[in-house]
Write a structure and sequence with these properties.
heterodimer; A: 366 residues; alpha+beta; 6 helices; B: 452 residues; alpha/beta; Rossmann fold; Helicase, Ruva Protein, domain 3; 21 helices; 8 strands; 9% strand; globular
Chain lengths: 366, 452
Amino acid sequence: MEIEVTQNKLSKALNNVSRIAVGKVTLPVLNNVLIRVDNNKVSLVTTNLDMAIVDYLPVSSSKDGVITVPAKLLTDFVGNLPRGEKIKITSKNDKVTITADKYTSTINSSPADDFPELPEINEDKAVIFKMGIDEFKNGISSVAIASSSDLTRPALTGVFFTTSDKNLYIAATDGYRLAERRLISGVESEVSVIVPTSSLQEVLRAINEEMDEIEVSFNEDLVRFRLGEVEIISKLIDASFPDYARLIPKDNNISFTVNREELIRDTKLAALFARGVAGSITIETKKPNIVSVKSVATELGENVSTIETEVSDDCKFTVNSRFFLDALNSLDEPDIVIALSSKTTPAVLRNQKNQDYTHIVMPLSR
Amino acid sequence: MYNVWENVLAEIEQKVSPANFSTWFKDTTLLSASDDHVIIGVKNSFFVKQLRSKFLDLITDALKKNGIEFTTIDFEVSSTSKPKVRSREVTTTDSSLGDRIKPLKKSLDTKSISNGLNSKYTLDSFVIGSNNDLAVSAAKSIIDTPGTRYNPFFLYGGPGLGKTHLVQAIGNELLRRDPSLKILYTPISHFYSDFIDAIQNGKGKEFNRKFEKLDCLIIDDFQFIVGKEKSQEEFFNIFNDLYQLNKQIIVTSDRLPSQIKTVDERLASRLTMGGAFDLQLPKFEDKCAILRAKAELMGADIEPEAIEYIAENVNTNIRDLEGEFSTILLMSEVRGLTPLELIQNGSASISRSNKLRPISGKQVVEKVAKYYNLPVKEMCGKSRVANIKTARQVAMFILSKELSMSTTKIATEVGVKDHTTVMHGIKKIESDLKLNFSLRDQIEEIKEHIYG
């Protein structure tokens, strides 16, 4: 096997794939990256058996062959070479030699036979969606934030992709908050699957400015993301997602519009005082036009900020400041609408104009 | 079926590297093997691909060697192949991902149709012994005339003694005699999570309706009701409704209701008004009978001496007993020795948790004192203060049970006057153990400290 490629291209590709190839002790070959050259097509592959990342690398010249080498070592070596350097990788027996102008290193490789073969998407049966990369990125990152890391509840450790009325929605919840977004409309096929958040984070990391479209294909228990030269395949989570639509309150009687930046500042201020009480802050509305954000810490002192905006009724609502901040940061318009009612129903946060995104935060009972 | 797969795995384990085995085969299961068609359950598609492309021949050979003939082999992603949370023997709701991609929203009703009973539990396969004969005869009377004499039927005992087996068997037998009966078996944890769902979805009424038409309600592991006041109240209402209609109610728990914290007194007394039956640890003869029945069921050949050896050395519960038994059978098959030969040449000694490394009496006394936060001198003195006295008696108890010391020797170890005091102490702990669950836990913990 032999390839010739510039340092920056190789380094970028290795960075894309190498993150998941660490720390597998049971099967050492999983710490390796597989480099395959087949008819001038060069691919770098890593997998952790929950997902796999493939990067198709543009090269200037190549000879067919397959090798696997420790991913971290190769990534670090190539990363430290001068930018723009021309790199040549050749393999002979079980040695892989990497040469650049003044630098040479030889790495022991292991047989490519040990490297697991990747499952494939059955193109005929797959459900395929295409969307702009920015829509995808904003959508996923604003929703995935609400997913849980509690492995005992697998359904909540992922983002739920579901279709209804020809819209594709994504949603995630950890039991304390919930985020939902309409990702694309006018879709014909139907899905109802949970994609692991950890896999989605890899997809987000692989995104760069040159990409403009992403293709997402679902198939039985696999999902494949195609973006630029990167392809990510992941298992789906085998569990059923809660019927979340019922969690979104429909009849919150108090709603008010506020400036998002202002509320973020007030929340951050209040959070400073809320450390001792698990970050809980209180939002209070007073007729006709006062919204205040408060926190009290017995040993530190207390804080109140007020915002003037029209409110229809009095109410008091206590939330976790971190969750509330996450929600505010996930919204993107300058003005947002918050709907509240008594203490027991969740608060609903939406952008003022675009209604595609909904974030709800459960109240703390205090 | 399950055991065949264990053998197949043992066969494969010899032929691949440990790394490959633990990565690719550990979480596999044999889902079905019939009509020339074998289905193997795996964790996800990555495994399907790999097993198919790299290990297919190996699996085929190993299956054939174990007497499974087939023409086609399939791999299926199954959620059951990997227990996500420690699951008890609950009915498996089969959810393969395949059917979730197209048909939407069909998952709602499936649960209510199933009655939660697993047909593998039958009364015939329940081995009757002196440890459970009372409970079984009550169970038989329920099957003959449900809803009359033993209603509610309250069954309690430690883990792995057959509670679930017995109550499931009652359900299955009732259903066999009259298939039109409406029976529901549910662990209490499902009861309250369903209840919470129902409340959240505003379907509290419907939840109630699901129960009121039942002819027999079986609730398993009632002790987990702790801290679920609302669910308890709901259960109390359902209980009363059913009871008034003379419907059979069966409840199991690891202890008496009065010993479960936060269980309402009214409910506790009602639960035991039909009598509380306990399943005890089997005696030596019972254990032999269980193992013989198991051997017959599996069609395995095992010497009576080997059975006696296992029965003598496993003292925890029936589940462990059967586990140990299966391990020995598996080993005998793999190594080609009879179970007795294995035991005699020492390769199958049941030593892990039961016969532990030797420890001295002094160590035990020190550990007990440390556990109760007492200086050894104080514990081994004449103090009559309740907690010190209990600690001393616990030490006596452990010395006697774990080290089989004579009472005279124990007396010198813990510094009491004579052996009669020791005898009294041991007896006191023994009788307390029956009722006092925190004491039971304490002693288990101390044992862990001693051996750990």
